[in-house]
Amino acid sequence: MQKNSHTDKTQAFFNICHQHQLKVTPQRVAIYRQLLNSDTHPTADAIYQNVKQEYPNISYDTVNRTLLTFAEIGVVDVVEIFGGAKRFDPNVTNHHHLHCTQCGKIIDFQNRTYDNLHVPEDVGKNFQVISKRVVLKGLCKDCRP
Amino acid sequence: MQKNSHTDKTQAFFNICHQHQLKVTPQRVAIYRQLLNSDTHPTADAIYQNVKQEYPNISYDTVNRTLLTFAEIGVVDVVEIFGGAKRFDPNVTNHHHLHCTQCGKIIDFQNRTYDNLHVPEDVGKNFQVISKRVVLKGLCKDCRP
DNA sequence: GTGATTGCAAACCTTTTGCACGCCA
DNA sequence: TGGCGTGCAAAAGGTTTGCAATCAC
User: Taking CB atoms and an 8 Å limit, are A86 and B86 in contact across chains?
Assistant: First the structure.
């Protein structure tokens, strides 16, 4: 199952690259695989550090540029931050965020009601909404007094 | 009316400073006044450029540090961004954001329904929610094809 | 073969830090 | 007066850019 699912995703990646006329380079594959293993919202540097383990010659630029490219074609999302380094989200399905104002952590959560939020009419007239996200700011379990 | 409102806000600023044991320096007042005039989400540099007009000797650091201090005491909000320089929001009342993925603009909007979003029980158990914001990503009027 | 992609290095932009001086309370 | 706040300058951190060599198609 796991193995199959992984193969499927690799195949999907090939397809996506072809759809967008991107060449399938070993670097891109390695970065993509690393993203699949991420359960957080890694920075470009975090991805770089991990990919470097199995691919010592890769440069930080390549990682950064590849992530930006991935963001353009919808393979990753760029996550909203409040300063600091960009963060990338391999989970492009609709979900929402908890943001701890103390430690800066960003935690995913699912909520059907939030997914189905109605876009106000006056907003929809002047703005074409592509995705919706609820961001709850506050204190996480570890930072709560 | 305007004048009164402005005086009120200045008075409020004095009170806030005293509450937090902050000294009321001319720089802080100038930065605060500049914030009141902002209708967008200025960067530290934008504030700096404007304050410099009436206060040529001020340094960028002072502006930046002051804004961070203001954020700590709740005079401004740090706005969620997707990369680039920090943005500060002088509007600390509850509101929501449209984010144009094309030009990067962030537009405020009000919505009572969004203000009153119910926090899911399983979230509330592990996270103390302080504020809620809906971020709608998409294309603004100018960028829409 | 050809154009896209990579690696490297430098440049750039923003934010942070240390320190001496000056000013507000 | 004492200590907070400011200005300056340098450092640090992250991102972007230009270019030559390389690789996928």
Answer: no
